[in-house]
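From the shared-data thread, chain only:
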Amino acid sequence: MTIGTNEFIIAIVIALLLAGALAYLIWKQRKEVKKEEEKPAPPESVGGIPIRQMQLQAYERLILLTDRIALPNLISRVNQPGLSAREMQSLLTLSIRQEFEHNITQQIYVSAEAWDAVRNFKEQNLLIINQVGSFLPEEATGMDLNKHLLDLLVQSPKASLQTVVSEALSYEAKKLM
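Structure, as tokens:
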């Protein structure tokens, strides 16, 4: 064997090693592509309704929810003359909880931040109603409670998160459009 033959054998061994390595990389890449193809694609629709449309409807419903549980709107909607402050307090808190529970499934279509904002707004309103109600005398009327709640909002407009929550929901909905 001459040096030329040794170089030729080394070149063949290197070529075979490179071909083997290349064949292995191609095989590995095809395996990964096949694995990706086997994964189910996220659905573009549920029950024939496009996901994006469902998300937009969820944001719409949550904006409506924030409007319905905003204290001025809630008071004007559920106000019943002749109730005591405790009865009105119960009616207001029950209405907020029912509205929230009616829309609880919307959380699966919106961001976690959006849902947290809605939930915090609900909790804030319940806290305000219960705090104001706890400071009223036993003989206070529902009208007294409503007046104190509305006075609080007039004196401290930032006491309500409604505008902030509604704007955040609207912003996220517009990103989907």
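Residues 3-38 form the longest helix (36 residues).
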